[in-house]
Write a sequence for this structure.
């Protein structure tokens, strides 16, 4: 047996032992399986069904990490449902549900809910299934996800379609019913334990992020000296500020550059090719420059939309928690432009530090202002250049702004390091979860004694 075939088995030892004997499954992505286990095509156990006309039912989605769950229980599902739900398909408990274009990513699960899913899903009715939970874990395991990738057909970039006919022929690895139940019980218990640990660490990250925001907010609205006299700022979201500070609208200490509107026609004009930033390039606290688009336009227009080092960039809209964030452009892409959905705030350096401005915009105060003054829809909010220009800026002297920025950078670096350590621990737990599931459902480890 090759080193690769031993990988799952080694990863979870010495706690677990292997089965006494193994045979070659004859399936490349499955490898060796315990002697006595059988392979059976999916079509002998599930039949595809398409029940429509149930628009009153709860909307469901299939997540790689969570299985089939109500769509409303997650706030990160950006696939908006159609206004007409008549073609959505009914799902009942025990049905197998898969997103045919994302099965290769692990978007497949046995449902424990009743509801409806979009026409992009395939729904399968159980006919001769012995253990729903075992099948649930089996079909979501790493070897099977790798198998879906091999069977899927590319239809466009990052889109792979697993046809129902091909999926129905996939071979399910089946031990005895007693073993299926033992494996399912073991995995339900272990994954619940790991998931609880992950949730605990995610709560810790949320607390650290709250601490980070509170630290920034206090520094940019109260300063660093707790003994200085305070005065009322006259701004609802700002409260008291140091007595020697001023409050000025952002337009009094900076200039605002709006961006390029795409789709203009420049017939008969000499054009130049320039790279430009889109909303996707401006993330929360960093720039994603792996994919920077290009546009052709006249040179005189290009100069109008060109970014400068020290500009603080902000997106026009998005999720509530990201509205108002600012990040400093340092000229990472030479002569780069920006799209009209990105604002470039250009501080007047004798009055305003770019780093201090970015901190104010990302503080609790800044976010409160942009949220309160934004145009809002479901889970989304947007601002405009007028609201941005009118942002009331707490304005200490530039040397004090620099001191505040230096203090915040030092303190947030400590918090960020802690967050990174916790994220690493979460990644290791998720890796252990994946390894345990794959090893148990493919018989690389024998877990029967664990639930005896």
């Amino acid at each position: 047996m090759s080193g690769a075939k031993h990988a799952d088995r080694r990863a979870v030892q010495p706690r677990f032992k292997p089965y006494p004997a193994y045979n070659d499954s004859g399936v490349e992505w499955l490898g060796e399986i315990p002697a006595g286990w059988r392979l059976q095509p999916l079509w002998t156990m599930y039949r595809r069904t398409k029940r429509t006309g149930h628009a009153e039912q709860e909307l469901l989605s299939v997540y790689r990490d969570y299985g089939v769950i109500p769509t409303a229980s997650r706030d990160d599902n950006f696939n908006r449902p159609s206004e007409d739900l008549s073609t959505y398909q009914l799902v009942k408990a025990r049905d197998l549900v898969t997103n045919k274009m994302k099965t290769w990513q692990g978007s497949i699960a046995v449902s424990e809910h009743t509801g409806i899913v979009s026409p992009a899903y395939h729904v399968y009715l159980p006919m001769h299934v012995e253990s729903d939970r075992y099948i649930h874990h089996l079909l979501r395991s790493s070897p099977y996800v790798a198998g879906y990738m091999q069977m899927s057909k590319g239809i466009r970039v990052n889109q792979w379609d697993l046809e129902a006919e091909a999926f129905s022929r996939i071979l399910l690895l089946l031990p005895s019913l007693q073993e299926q139940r033992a494996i399912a019980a073991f995995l339900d218990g272990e994954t619940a334990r790991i998931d609880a640990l992950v949730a605990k660490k995610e709560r810790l990250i949320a607390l650290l992020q709250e601490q980070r925001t509170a630290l920034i907010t206090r520094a940019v609205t109260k300063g660093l000296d707790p003994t200085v006299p305070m005065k009322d700022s006259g701004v609802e979201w700002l409260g008291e500020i140091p007595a020697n500070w001023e409050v000025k609208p952002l337009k009094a200490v900076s200039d605002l550059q709006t961006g390029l509107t795409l789709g203009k026609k420049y017939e008969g004009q000499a054009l130049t090719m320039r790279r430009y930033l889109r909303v996707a390039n401006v993330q929360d606290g960093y720039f994603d420059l792996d994919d920077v688009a290009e546009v052709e336009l006249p040179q005189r227009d290009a100069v109008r939309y060109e970014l400068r080092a020290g500009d603080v960039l902000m997106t026009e809209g998005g999720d509530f928690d990201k509205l108002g964030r600012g990040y400093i452009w340092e000229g990472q892409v030479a002569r780069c432009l920006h799209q009209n959905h990105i604002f470039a705030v250009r501080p007047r350096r004798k009055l305003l530090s770019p780093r201090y401005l970015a901190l104010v915009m990302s503080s609790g105060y800044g976010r409160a202002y942009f949220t309160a003054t934004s145009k809002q829809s479901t889970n989304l909010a947007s601002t405009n250049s007028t609201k941005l220009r009118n942002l009331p800026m707490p304005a200490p002297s530039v040397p004090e702004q620099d001191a505040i920025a230096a203090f915040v950078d030092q303190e947030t670096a400590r918090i960020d390091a802690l967050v990174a350590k916790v994220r690493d621990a979460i990644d290791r737990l998720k890796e252990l979860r994946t390894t345990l599931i794959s090893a148990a459902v493919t018989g690389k480890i024998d877990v029967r004694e664990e639930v005896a």
Observations:
- The radius of gyration is 28 Å.
- The longest strand covers residues 121-126.
- Residues 1-11 have pLDDT under 50 and may be disordered.
- The chain has three domains: 1-37+176-223+397-452, 39-174, 228-395.
